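Researcher: Here's a chain I'd like modeled. Treat it as a single chain, no partners, no ligands.
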Amino acid sequence: MAFGTEYGKLGDERLMELVVRRDERAFATLYDRYSRRLLNYFHRMLWSDREMAQDYLQDLFTKLANKPESFDPSRAFHTWLFSVANNMCKNAYRHQAVVREAAVHLKNGVDRVEATAGVGLDGERFRDRLDEELDKLDPDHKATFVMRFHEDMAIKEIAAVFACSEGTVKSRIFYTLKKLAERLKEFDPNALMHHGKTRTI
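Model: Modeled as a single isolated chain. Structure tokens:
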């Protein structure tokens, strides 16, 4: 138990040094530290498909276990990890266009419209509509929104993930919020910000 506590006190970059040396405890510590956040991220980015999110999470950590030397030690580990996850999502968009179209079609299905007519479903209806509109955005804008409002990542961290300026990140956030506000006029404008603070899967 003392050993586990010791590993838990190590920084991400130090743990990665140990992972490169095939230290399984260091790998397990990183997995415990980031798996839930990344599962949430993949879930939000990949059409709210929980099974796909779990598959991508497993793929990401399998890559990390098999090729730990691919980590660039000059970068912060967590921003590097999210950049890898973001690239995986971009590949999914390219190769799974059919899945995306099917997901959008299902979200617009008659059963969903009938369900949202019920009492007390405003919050659920808003989340569904927000997810629907996020799916229509450019992948970089969607990823920036999810990182900022669902993962609570700082502007500086997001800029590191995308290897772009903080100004670019701020511009994307402004553009995305403006566009979402226009498309979700039927809801309270403040709902966007409130929803950003709820992390559900």
